[in-house]
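User: Working on a comparison across species. This one is 4-fold beta flower domain-containing protein from Rhodoplanes serenus. Can you predict its structure so I can line it up against the others?
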Amino acid sequence: MEPLYDRQGRVRAWLQEEHGRIISLQGCHLASIEGHSVYDRFGQHIGWWKNGHMRNSRGAVVVWAADAFGLGVIRPPLLPPPAEPTAPHVAATWQTRATPPAHPARSASWAVEFPF
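Assistant: Here's the predicted structure for 4-fold beta flower domain-containing protein from Rhodoplanes serenus:
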């Protein structure tokens, strides 16, 4: 799993890229990535994934992987990641996906709130 960092360089979640899932620090399923869309565990569209980072509905950067590019914001220094969860929980079922809204313009700002 790959750590996903926030605007302060802290690990906020883990990316399970091979399954297209974002996992909490405790190993719970937070979101899934399908194409460029990110959906929460209830099937609601919560953002877009592109070039190793997630943007919210206002185009602000939510989380990013160390190899992300095209952020448009200044990267903070990375803090050491916590230990990976030993056995991530598997999502029991996938909810019906909402239709993604129009893609917003990229913003050169950090998201203040997390959608998951």
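For your comparison, note: The two ends are 18 Å apart (CA to CA).

User: Helpful, thanks.
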